[in-house]
């Protein structure tokens, strides 16, 4: 069986950053397996700007951001195999991929980094009643058709979900000559970045219907009409609030889910909230030598954070390759009041390698709040926070000293302050 | 009068407060960088945006090439700029940063390639 020191599954923003970091850490034998025909991943279809402000201190388009990493990978002689689809992953760190020229290949790796990305929740996951005509797409699918393949999917458009992909497509469609009748959001607030509400909806006079959802689709061959209804506090449609829009296209931007069928097969423990692997402070999963990063670990809102986390996962993997030892006891990092999840979810107080940054999300929008970093019930540190949103990832830093003095385990907690 | 704006410069989306008297800006607060301040000033006079779209390309690895303006152009000229972009047909290969249309609509901004694209083999 072919042997490779480090295999990275996925050549998108996370995989490329992980590959570049592994090389910089002195790991020579690195192979990236990418299922698409070129590296870059989803960045290639995100032609809008706003990428790279943290990483490169400038505003780049998605493809330009990807190209920086592709060039770095080329300079460091990273081997990227495109059109290689990983079909099986096993806990003994063997895997199988298919490739048009190599055929079915089995591989043994010393470390594997999952940089597999995420997928979009499809129509089937949200129960829209009615017929099943053509013209209903996920927003990312329509984005790929338009920005990479050069096809406009429809002329009269409605968008369900105010996540960033939905908002970005709401702007993109009118630029290309389609009319967008509105964006419906089931929650009473938008899940998109504030700047996208401004520059994608307000700039183009596209109405945003908060606490509304699409309840029915009409049309035989092609979508002809949709029904939109207002929802109550329990997200149930309110009878009598029906609105109808004559549209030929409905775009769904209703959530992203880490793509983890390979992880499931390998027996990797998943977090029920993030739907991605449970990882420790070195980004290692419960399977020895298998690491995870990027949107396959948890869905990010900024690509800069994807690159940053992938770098840390790669450092974890490089550390494992160079000096594989038992790191002693593991204490949990868990979510307390008003926090929906924390990544990573454990630290090693007997072997704290560095400070550890915890990525977390809050459960509801808050104007003013206090962040508590606790060890069990003991408060270690507090921070004042402003304008917290579930759609914006927050970060909390655990210092090396904090970690080595831990007794019970870290709890990340938020208390809302009185306005 | 206090005008509330959201900076569209980057994903941080700073909430800006612009204190105005008629057309005169008295103060700008809430920005975390100079770009936020410049945005607020411009937004009160004539809003400007970066335009990103695609243009046709022949013999490339894809049918279209993503392009971006190298600086913001007036929001009220965006649709006209799209008309210009639709007229373009390029030939691969293209390098990232290549100028596709210089000084588009006299705005002083160039429309540039936002990725490299090889010729199809």
CATH architectural designation of the largest domain in chain A: 3-Layer(bba) Sandwich
The top level CATH class name of the largest domain in chain A: Alpha Beta
Class by helix and strand content of chain B? alpha+beta
H and E string of chain B: EEEHEEEEHEEE
| Domains of chain A, number | 3
Number of DSSP E strands of chain A: 28
The average pLDDT score of chain B comes to 92
What overall geometry of chain A do the principal axes of the alpha carbons give?
globular
In short:
The complex is a heterodimer of chains A (419) and B (121). With 419 residues, chain A is α/β, with parallel strands linked by helices. Chain A has helices at residues 13-24, 62-75, 139-147, 164-175, 194-201, 261-266, 303-322, 400-404, and strands spanning 2-9, 30-33, 49-51, 60-61, 79-81, 85-89, 94-99, 103-114, 118-120, 129-130, 136-138, 156-160, 179-185, 208-210, 212-218, 225-230, 243-245, 249-252, 256-258, 290-292, 331-335, 339-343, 346-347, 356-362, 366-375, 378-388, 394-398, 410-416.
Write the layout of secondary structure elements.
The complex is a heterodimer of chains A (419) and B (121).
Chain A: E1 2-9, H1 13-24, E2 30-33, E3 49-51, E4 60-61, H2 62-75, E5 79-81, E6 85-89, E7 94-99, E8 103-114, E9 118-120, E10 129-130, E11 136-138, H3 139-147, E12 156-160, H4 164-175, E13 179-185, H5 194-201, E14 208-210, E15 212-218, E16 225-230, E17 243-245, E18 249-252, E19 256-258, H6 261-266, E20 290-292, H7 303-322, E21 331-335, E22 339-343, E23 346-347, E24 356-362, E25 366-375, E26 378-388, E27 394-398, H8 400-404, E28 410-416
Helix pairs in contact in A: 1-2, 1-7, 4-5
Chain B: E1 2-6, E2 15-21, E3 24-29, H1 34-45, E4 48-49, E5 52-58, E6 64-69, E7 73-74, H2 78-86, E8 89-91, E9 99-101, E10 111-113
Parallel strand pairs in B: 5-8
Antiparallel strand pairs in B: 1-2, 2-3, 4-7, 5-6, 6-10, 9-10
